[in-house]
Structure formats: structure tokens, C-alpha cells
């Protein structure tokens, strides 16, 4: 009798854990909805501000340690947000450059690779500071490349 109770409890625990894992993975893959409840997957309505091919030299000990080349686009909420982004493009580009320089300057020497999620979060924060909250849906990194600097 005790074995049957233990087996039933184990089955419930395993089923509960499996259900929880399934739920959280399905939530992570679900499309994000904004405050109005619209689905964000409709690309036909999306407006983009392209900030292409930004080259960031990472300087260590007075020399260029490596170069980061990154291509960024900002997905805007609507046509008005895109117009605001185009109007404030110099301020927006400066905020993006400042965040990228700041991010790569604090990385450990010898550390390679780009943490895309962290870069996207910082760039979204910078864009919101430059043109206001609620205008940028998401930051899209189209390409990020790293090249070693000269070894003089």
C-alpha cells in the first residue's frame, strides 16, 4: 500500500513538473503583445529606423584591441514613431553609439563574443531615453561581427 501511494505521488510530481516546464517554454515562445492587445507578428504594419554598420573600436592600453561591427534596426510602434525617430536620428544614433562604447569598454580584456540580449536591452533603453518611451517596439540586431585589432 505504501509503495502505491509513493508511486502515485511521484507520478503527480513528475506530471506537475512537466506541465510547468511546458507552460514556461510555451510562454517564452509566445508572441509578445503590447498594451492594446495587438499581435506584434504583423510585419506589414511595422516601421523601421535603420542604424546600419556601426564600427566600435575597443581600445585597451592605448591600442585598438578589437573592432566591433554591428548593424542595428529599430522597430517602431507606428508611423508617427518612425517620423519621430527619423527627425531625432542624430540624437538616436549618438545614444546608440554611447551605449555601445560604454558596453564594450567595460568588458574584460581578452573576452570575446557579443552578448546580443544584453546589447539589445541597452540599446532599447538608450532609444527610449533619446526619443521617449513607447515609440520603439524592439531592437533588431541584423549582424554583429568582431575582428581583432592590429597587433603592433
Walk me through what this model shows.
The chain has 152 residues and is of the alpha+beta class. The radius of gyration is 22 Å and the shape is flat. Helix content is 46%, strand content 27%. The chain contains 4 helices and 3 strands. The mean pLDDT is 80.
Q: Please give the CATH architecture of the largest domain.
A: 2-Layer Sandwich
Which word captures the global form? Answer: flat
Residues in helices, as a percent range: 40-55%
Number of strands: 3
Q: How many domain units?
A: 2
* Poorly predicted sequence stretches spanning 5 or more consecutive residues: none
CATH fold name of the largest domain, please?
Answer: Tetrahydropterin Synthase, Chain A
Q: Which sequence of strands runs across the widest sheet?
A: 1-2-3
- One letter per element, helices H and strands E, the order comes to HEEHHHE
List the helices and strands and how they pair.
Elements: H1 2-29, E1 47-60, E2 63-76, H2 79-87, H3 89-105, H4 116-131, E3 136-148
Antiparallel strand pairs: 1-2, 2-3
Write a concise synopsis of the structure shown:
With 152 residues, the protein is of the alpha+beta class.
List keywords for this structure.
27% strand, 4 helices, three-stranded antiparallel β-sheet, 152 residues, Tetrahydropterin Synthase, Chain A, 46% helix, 2 domains, flat, single chain, alpha+beta
Amino acid at each position: 500500500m505504501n509503495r502505491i501511494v509513493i508511486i502515485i505521488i511521484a507520478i503527480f510530481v513528475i506530471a506537475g513538473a512537466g506541465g510547468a516546464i511546458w507552460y514556461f517554454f510555451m510562454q517564452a515562445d509566445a508572441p509578445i503583445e503590447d498594451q492594446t492587445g495587438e499581435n506584434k507578428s504583423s510585419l506589414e504594419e511595422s516601421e523601421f529606423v535603420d542604424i546600419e554598420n556601426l564600427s566600435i573600436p575597443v581600445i585597451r592600453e592605448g591600442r585598438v584591441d578589437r573592432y566591433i561591427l554591428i548593424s542595428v534596426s529599430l522597430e517602431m510602434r507606428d508611423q508617427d514613431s518612425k517620423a519621430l525617430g527619423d527627425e531625432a536620428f542624430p540624437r538616436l544614433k549618438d545614444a546608440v553609439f554611447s551605449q555601445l562604447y560604454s558596453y564594450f569598454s567595460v568588458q574584460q580584456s581578452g573576452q570575446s563574443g557579443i552578448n546580443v540580449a544584453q546589447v539589445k536591452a541597452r540599446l532599447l533603453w538608450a532609444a527610449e531615453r533619446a526619443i521617449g518611451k513607447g515609440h520603439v517596439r524592439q531592437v533588431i540586431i541584423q549582424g554583429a561581427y568582431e575582428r581583432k585589432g592590429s597587433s603592433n
